[in-house]
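During the reporting period the student researcher (J.K.) took over the structure-prediction task from the postdoctoral fellow and processed the backlog of single-chain submissions. One of the processed entries is reproduced below for the supervisory committee.
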Amino acid sequence: MSKSRRNARVSRGSGKGAVRSARARLLTIAALCDAMEQITPTWAAAEWDNVGLLAGDRKLPLRRLLLTTDLTGAVLEEAVLGRADAIVSYHPPIFRPIKSFVAHHGSTEGLASAALTCGIAIYSPHTALDCAPGGTNDTIAALCGLKDVRPFEAARRASKEVKLVTFVPVEKVSVVAEAMFAAGAGRIGDYEKCSYRVRGQGTFFGTDATNPAVGRRGRLEHVEEIRIELVVPLNKLDAVVAAMRKAHPYEEPAFDIYPLQGHPDRQLGQGRIGRFARPMTLRALARWLARKTGARNVMILDGARTHRTTGSRRMTAPRLGHALVCVGAAGSLPFEIPDRPCGPGDVVITGEIRHHDALAYLRSGASAIALGHWASERPALTPLSSRLRALLPGVSVVVSRRDVDPFQPV
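J.K. obtained the following structure tokens:
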């Protein structure tokens, strides 16, 4: 056999093996959901938001993926022509409750229906991407060169536990506690039978309709009791309460259930605040961000100017100290940071600002830069596409070219 034929056979064999390997690695829409959950956890999104897989079948194959800020008719046409299997639309095209799901281009819901008719799934991260490390707010913060960046307030995952408190006569506390422990209460990490107990005095007056196990009806009783507190998983709460009732000596045991908050995640949360690594003036920063984001409708609020006296305009422009980033529309959020008021030397970087919020910024002495709603959010699609390519090997990930700012300069 000649050397050339041998090489050809090896080449053909390698090609078939590569095809089989590619087929074996074929990903599905479920893989997209898992990747997005890893990058933009849905639990961190705002309560009012609608995030996650909005349309599509998790079992269908995923070969081509299109990223966009908004799902428009032009973007949908681009997805169809590019044979995309899914669209990641930052803004959710399905947001409010809908009564019909008809494919047409007259509404975002109609566009979503049309996409589904074409076999294209739709995933929306929205405020989950705002919260996420490397998301929309972090992207703008990085363009500003900010240091010591943190969220306005750390996000908290909803707790899957509650605290159950009940009051038991001293001599029966061990019996009741053991019953609740056996039903699943009092477990913290690798520790079991965890509880907090404090002694006190309980009172009750049994009416004629009662049959008290302790004391007598018709008179005020004083009983030495133990207040016992235990952590209970939500999925075992009913069983623990039933066990407590069964073991408790009282005819009507008193108990309270308190919701618990999850631990804060210091990397996740709405907005970003950070300090400038080098001195920066308001106008220089606005021009820099306009150039880096491509924003064409940038507007500024000069908070320092409202505090200058007449004839002081020629003074050197003041330097900014900190930036508060909140893409889209910041509203009053920068003023609601728990441990830091917004004031002179600060600049709020956002997309759009309502008139009365603008006046509030100026009264506080803070400045602001409005890049435009779309322009403030669009830059995050590029780093998102890079992360998705790394998590979805073999999938073509493209940022839409037809996704454009709805506002155009005069």
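The committee noted the following: Residues 3-24 form the longest helix (22 residues).
J.K. will present the remaining backlog at the next meeting.
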